[in-house]
Amino acid sequence: MMDGNQAAEFTKRQQGTLPGELGIEWDEVATGRAAGRFTVTRGHMAPNGFLHAASVIALVDSACGYACMASLPEGASGFTTIELKANYLGTAKEGDRVACTARLAHGGRTTQVWDAEAVNETTGKTMALFRCTQMVLYPR
Question: Which CATH class name applies to 7-137?
Answer without folding.
Answer: alpha beta
